[in-house]
Specification:
- It is a single chain.
- This protein has 13 helices and six strands.
- It folds into two domains: about 1-175 and about 255-295, Rossmann fold (3-Layer(aba) Sandwich); about 175-250, Orthogonal Bundle (DNA polymerase, domain 1).
- The protein is elongated and about 70 Å long.
- The chain has a six-stranded mixed β-sheet, sandwiched between helices.
- By secondary structure, it is an alpha/beta fold.
C-alpha cells in the first residue's frame, strides 16, 4: 500500500475540526486524522507492507522549467514554498516524527513529488499494489494485469472509489495507459496545466479514442486531410510548444532513486519512548491508540 501522504493529511486537516488540539492549544487535527486514516486502511485492506510517500519537492524545478505555470498559483512566497494553511504547516513535522517513531516507512526523494515515488515503487513491485490518493494524476498507474489499483477517497478513507481499468474506462472513456495523454490534452487548472484551447474532458477522450495516443492526435493535426475540424486542428497546432513538454510534466516518473527499505508494517512501535513523548506532547490520544491496536492485531 502506497500512501500519497500529503493528499491524505490535507483531507484530514479539512475533515477533522481544528478544535482537536494538543494540550497547549495547538491544532493537531491533521495529525490525528491521518493516524485514524492509516488505522482504517490497515484494518480494511490488510496490506503486507506500507509506505508513506512524501513530497520532498512539491514543485520540482525540472517540471517548472518545462511548464513555468506548473503549480505557480500555489506558490506562497519568493522562496517557492507551497501555500498551506497556517495551522497545517506546523503539523507536518509532527506527522513525520510520529510515523517514524511508530516505524511506518516514510520515503521522499529530493527533486521529486510523492507521485513520482509512488510511481517508481509501483513499477518495481512484484505483487499487487494499492495506491491511496485524492489525486487523479495517479490513475495513470492503474494496471489490472499487475494488480495496481487506486483507492480514491470520497470523504474519509472508509468510503473510497476503487479505481481499476474498468472504472477509468467508465469515467473517462479512455484506457488507463492512455490517461496521461488524455490529461495533457485536457489540462488541469489545479496544477497550472493549460491544456489545449477548446479541448475539455469529453473532447480529449474522443481524440484519444480515435487516434490512440497524443502522438496520433498531433499527427492528425498536422495532416490537412485528417477528419479533424479546422478549428480543432488550429488549436492543436497552436498548442504545439505546450504539447511538446506536457507529457513529461504530466507523466509520473518511474525511475526515481528511491532507497531500499523494508516497508513491513510494525507490530509494535519502533521507538516506544519517543512515541510516548510525542503522544503526551501533542495529545494524540485515541487516534494513536487505535492505530497501534490495529498494527498489533495483524
Amino acid at each position: 500500500m502506497l500512501l500519497d501522504t500529503a493528499s491524505l493529511y490535507f483531507r484530514a486537516y479539512f475533515g477533522v475540526p481544528e478544535s482537536v488540539k494538543a494540550p497547549d492549544g495547538t491544532p493537531v487535527n491533521a495529525v490525528r486524522g491521518l493516524l485514524d486514516f492509516i488505522a482504517r486502511l490497515v484494518s480494511d485492506h490488510s496490506p503486507g507492507a506500507l509506505v508513506a510517500c512524501m513530497d520532498a519537492d512539491w514543485r520540482p524545478q525540472w517540471r517548472v522549467d518545462l511548464i513555468p505555470s506548473y503549480k505557480a498559483h500555489r506558490v506562497a512566497d519568493p522562496a517557492g514554498s507551497e501555500e498551506v494553511p497556517d495551522t497545517l504547516s506546523p503539523q507536518v513535522p509532527v506527522i513525520e516524527a510520529v510515523l517514524d517513531a511508530i516505524g511506518i516507512t516514510r520515503i521522499g526523494v529530493p527533486g521529486y513529488e510523492a507521485d513520482d515515488v509512488i510511481g517508481t515503487l509501483a513499477a518495481a513491485s512484484p505483487g499487487p499494489v494499492t495506491v491511496v490518493t485524492g489525486d487523479r494524476d495517479l490513475f495513470q498507474l492503474v494496471d489490472d494485469a499487475r494488480g495496481v489499483r487506486v483507492l480514491y477517497p470520497r470523504k474519509g478513507v472508509g468510503d473510497c472509489d476503487v479505481i481499476d481499468e474498468q472504472a477509468i474506462a467508465q469515467r473517462y472513456g479512455v484506457r488507463a495507459g492512455q490517461y496521461a495523454d488524455f490529461a495533457a490534452l485536457r489540462g488541469d487548472p489545479s496544477d497550472g496545466l493549460p491544456g489545449v484551447k477548446g479541448i475539455g474532458e469529453k473532447t480529449a477522450a474522443e481524440l484519444i479514442g480515435q487516434y490512440a495516443d497524443l502522438a496520433g492526435v498531433r499527427a492528425a493535426a498536422a495532416d490537412p486531410f485528417s477528419k479533424l475540424t479546422p478549428a480543432r486542428r488550429r488549436n492543436l497546432l497552436a498548442a504545439g510548444e505546450y504539447l511538446d513538454v506536457a507529457p513529461k510534466v504530466v507523466r509520473v516518473a518511474l525511475d526515481v532513486p528511491v532507497p531500499q527499505v523494508d516497508a513491513t508494517l510494525p507490530a509494535e512501535p519502533a521507538d516506544p519512548e519517543v512515541l510516548e513523548a510525542l503522544a503526551a506532547r501533542w495529545g494524540l490520544g485515541g487516534a494513536l491508540t487505535r492505530l497501534l491496536d490495529v498494527l498489533a492485531a495483524r
